[in-house]
């Protein structure tokens, strides 16, 4: 009799345990009745009740966040002229876990240019030559020149390495424009320097 009762008792207990685990993940974040309920929309139109007044007071009591990077508007909105036919080179600073690999691939594969980058099938590195040239490159990145300055080179490594690497390629004397992808939780964007 003990084996039969254990056999019939185990499935309901496992089902109950499963339901408890699922309930923990699906249940609201507030325990029990501790969560304040929202008033109906009609009460909100009339001016709200004490719950709204408390929320407004709490919001007013919170300190205002200061600007993370206090740049002048002119610095943030400036335009940079890039001369692809001239001596300008875009240096892409790849920062890990910011979407830089995807952005780097888009730089060599998906930009519609007068002379797009030439990518061979099965290779990660593409040739990004200037229009009318077969030696000089307009892009210095992992997908165009490879890891010329080392794996995930930082800003200081790139500023000292890029001129020497470009000279080795026969492209000395270029003006470099650096760009990177910033992974801020609030604002993501490409920052040009």
Q: Largest sheet, order of strands side by side? A: 4-1-5-6
Number of helices: 6
Radius of gyration: 29 Å
N/C terminus separation = 79 Å
Count every beta strand, where a strand is a DSSP E run of 2 or more residues.
Answer: 6
Q: Determine the mean pLDDT.
A: 75
The structural class is: alpha/beta
Low-pLDDT residue spans:
39-46, 188-193
Overall, the morphology is elongated
Q: How would a textbook summarize the main sheet?
A: 4 strands, mixed
Strand content: 5-15%
Helix content: 25-40%
N-to-C SSE series?
HHHHEHEEEHEE
Describe the structure.
The chain has 193 residues and is of the alpha/beta class. It contains six helices and six strands, in the order H-H-H-H-E-H-E-E-E-H-E-E. The protein has helices at residues 2-26, 41-46, 50-61, 73-76, 100-109, 155-168, and strands at 88-93, 118-119, 126-127, 139-140, 175-183, 188-192. A hairpin with a 4-residue loop joins strand 5 and strand 6 (188-192). The model is unreliable at 39-46 and 188-193 (pLDDT under 50).
Outline of this structure?
With 193 residues, the chain is of the alpha/beta class.
Task: List the SSEs and their pairings.
Elements: H1 2-26, H2 41-46, H3 50-61, H4 73-76, E1 88-93, H5 100-109, E2 118-119, E3 126-127, E4 139-140, H6 155-168, E5 175-183, E6 188-192
Parallel strand pairs: 1-4, 1-5
Antiparallel strand pairs: 2-3, 5-6
List its salient traits.
alpha/beta; 6 strands; elongated; single chain; 6 helices; 37% helix; two-stranded antiparallel sheet; 193 residues
């Amino acid at each position: 009799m003990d084996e039969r009762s254990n056999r019939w008792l185990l499935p309901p207990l496992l089902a109950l345990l499963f339901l408890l685990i699922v309930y923990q993940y699906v249940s609201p974040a507030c325990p029990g009745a501790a969560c304040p309920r929202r008033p109906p929309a009609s009460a909100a139109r009339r001016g709200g009740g004490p719950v709204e007044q408390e929320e407004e007071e709490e919001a007013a009591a919170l300190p205002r966040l200061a600007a993370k990077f206090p740049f002048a508007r002119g610095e943030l909105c400036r335009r940079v002229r890039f001369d692809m036919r001239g001596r300008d080179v875009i240096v892409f600073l790849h920062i890990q876990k910011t979407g830089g690999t995807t952005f780097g691939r888009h730089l060599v594969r998906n930009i519609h240019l007068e002379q797009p980058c030439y990518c061979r099938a099965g290779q990660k590195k593409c040739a990004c030559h200037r229009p009318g040239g077969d030696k000089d490159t307009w892009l210095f990145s992992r997908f165009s020149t490879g890891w010329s300055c080392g794996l995930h080179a930082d800003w200081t490594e790139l500023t000292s390495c890029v001129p020497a690497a470009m000279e080795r390629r026969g492209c000395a004397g270029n003006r470099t424009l650096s760009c990177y992808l910033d992974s801020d939780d609030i604002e993501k964007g490409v920052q040009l320097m």
